[in-house]
Amino acid sequence: MRVIYMGSGAFGLPTARALAAEHDVVLVVSQPDRAAGRGRQLRATPIAGWALEHDLPLERPEDVNDPDIIGRIHDLEPDALVVIAFGQKLGVDLLAGLPAFNLHASLLPAYRGAAPINRAMMDGCETTGVSVIGLAQRMDAGVVFATAELEVDPRETAGELHDRLAELGPKAILDVLARLEAGSLEGRDQDEALATRAPKLARAEATTGFLEPAPLVRAHVHGLTPWPGCDVMLDGKRLRLLRVLEHHGEVEEAEPGTLLDGGLVACGTGALRILEVQPSGGKPMDFDAWQRGRQIAAGARLERIE
Q1: Ramachandran region, residue 234 (left: φ > 0; alpha: ψ -120 to 50; beta: rest)
Q2: Residue 198, class by beta-carbon neighbours within 10 Å (0-12 exposed, 13-18 middle, 19+ buried)?
Q3: Nearest to 201 by CA among 120, 140, 109, 136
Q4: Angle between helices 13-22 and 158-166 in degrees, nearest 10
């Protein structure tokens, strides 16, 4: 099939590779290069970089709904548009007459919005997945054509879950395209009564308290990792929590946020073992090594940053 791929983020790379192997990718559309890093050098998106590496036709418009871009897309007479983590809204003129499919990182209608992976993890979901939907003018509200799910590992972060979910994309998208080509594609409407939102993360959320039960605190920490991060104050220093794990044995009674023996921190119910941290200005490291270097004893308090 003649496919136009529209995407920017790394989440779509596995699917982009699969599409190029199975179909004719006649055009890749991505976001323009943006300044990034300490040197503020212009950097291509992961998808644009992949397209350039494979010598695929590439457009990087500031506005994908520009009439010239719309004209080029329609002139190519694609059989389908595949849209993944693109970053611009596609207007009705662009979509007119074109089958268009989006891979979204949640089991819709749950977690519509910009941060479905993080929000699902922060809410303590034990299962999540991806959905292939038809594009609609309301955010993530289109007809669902396929889903795939997986279990959330308590040890993984949102960044690691992102990568595992991305690997579900190729099979789901290729299956939808195969059914489209065969004339057998059917979908289901989303139940609006079950719709939930996944708003974009903000830096103001990059911390945690310890009043909640240990599983929810763990989910919150991991859902903020790697961005925007989860910082707390300990011994007067800012410390980023990277990975924690629920402790299933007996723990002494203590105020939530109290550092216990063995790298444990008391929560509203239960305790967490702190596994990996990153000191301000430093590199990620095991918490045990950080604690020995700082000589921080049990009884110190981990505090939310207000």
Answers
A1: beta
A2: buried
A3: 120
A4: 10
**Residues 275, 277, 282: CA angle, nearest 5 degrees:** 150
Q: Which domain holds residue 211?
A: 203-304
Q: What is the CATH number of the domain that holds 80?
A: 3.40.50.170
N-to-C CA span, the chain = 53
Cis peptide bond upstream of 226, omega within 30:
yes
CB half-sphere exposure, 197, CA atoms < 13 A: 5
Asked if 268 contacts 211 with a C-beta cutoff of 8 angstroms, the reply is yes
179 and 72 fall within a common domain = yes
Q: Which residues pair with 35 in a beta bridge?
A: 42
Distance between CA atoms of 83 and 279, rounded to whole angstroms? 38
**How far is it, in rounded angstroms, from Cα 198 to Cα 120?**
8
Residues 258 and 125 in one domain: no
User: Does residue 96 sit in the same domain as residue 171?
Assistant: yes
Average pLDDT of each block of 10 consecutive residues along the chain (306 residues)? 98 98 98 82 94 98 97 98 97 96 98 97 97 92 97 98 98 98 97 97 96 97 98 94 95 94 95 96 95 92 95
- SS3 assignment for 205-249: HCECCCCCEHHHHHHHHHHCCCCCCCEEEECCEEEEEEEEEEECC
CB 222 within 8 A of CB 245: no
pTM for the predicted model, two decimal places:
0.95
Total count of domains within the chain: 2
